[in-house]
Amino acid sequence: MLKIIFGENNVVDIQQIQEGVSFALTEEQKMLQKMAREFTQKEIIPVAEEFDREAKFPEEIFHKAREFGIVNMNIPAEYGGIGATAFEEVIVGEELGYGCTGISTSISTNGLGALPIILGANDQQKQHWLGERLVDKGQFVSYGVTEAAAGSNVVGIETRAERKNGSYIINGSKTFITNASHANFFTVFAKTDPSAGHRGMSCFIIDRETPGVSVGKKFDKLGQRASDTAEIVFENVEIPAENLIGQEGQGFYLAMKVFDYSRPGVAAAAVGLQRRALEESVKYAKERHAFGVPIYQHQAIGHKIADMAINYEASRLLVWQAAWAVDTGTVNPKLAAYAKAFAADMATRAAVDAVQVFGGYGFMKEYPVEKLLRDVKIFQIYEGTSEIQRNIIVRELFR
After folding, report:
1. CB atoms < 10 A from the CB of 396, how many?
2. Which residue numbers are catalytic?
3. 143-178: per-residue pLDDT in tens?
4. What structural domains and CATH numbers belong to the chain?
């Protein structure tokens, strides 16, 4: 048995080192990946172009995915979910993102909307909203932070929640809210004490049927058109005090924690799009000839595709690391920011280069890479812009 000796008394078994880190999926993880890949091939890819063209919400696909266990993955088993790890979520997220990031966003948003409840709610709230509403009834939940004047600056939200006779009165609006038109309830961040800065923010669960809640017309978007995005307005919405998640003033800290858990999954979808761009480019560059040879033999094209492959593998490893950190309880905002920023930026580069590989055909809707280019841009914007991710990285490096 090979031993490594550090100093006089520090002996480490090399086998223990090798068993501590693995880049191979377990058999169970491979089965999950295979199931998600087959679901994507059968249910998503054949209809992706139609749903994109018509900006059609994939409700039927959502419910099929729920039957397969790839919706509400992060809901703990005690509330009827499967209690998937973050690592299992990113495995599925890459496969769904490969097929269509608009449809995958629609499928995965319940996981985001449920996170404040999973991370901050009491048992009674979890039983009702996670178990009864999401698992048993198969409902939709949306996550409400962003406002017209408060995107990257979460502390700048203006939605107000005022305590009154054992209830809260909510006034304000949220914008760019995914699945808003279909959500049955929302997890919403509002100011309970505007004078307290980030310590004055709280989080609430708001049922769509509550008087005063209205959802505006969905936005007509450049990409990810199968994903519903709309505005929510709250006009004197009265909710019971029991719909407060955690304590007053803890909303900002909860929102930051949600980002640590959600960003690896968003980055995984970008990784899936990268793989799609890579595989479509390899296929086309084999078939298309110029100057008497397949175009991949021209270094200008071959190197673009080689870079796609390098960046795809690097992005996936960063995503896996960020998910591993969540699962091991060593959550670090820097790791999630690495994964989100790099995967988003490299997916954008891959989509641009894929269109270039296809040449004039890449600009036509007849070919899939045109859609990849439209879909990819939002990855550099939502769940924290690429610039914000770099701000986080700088903050953590210079603490």
Report:
1. 14
2. 383
3. 999 999 998 999 999 999 999 999 999 999 999 999
4. 27-136 (1.10.540.10), 141-251 (2.40.110.10), 259-397 (1.20.140.10)
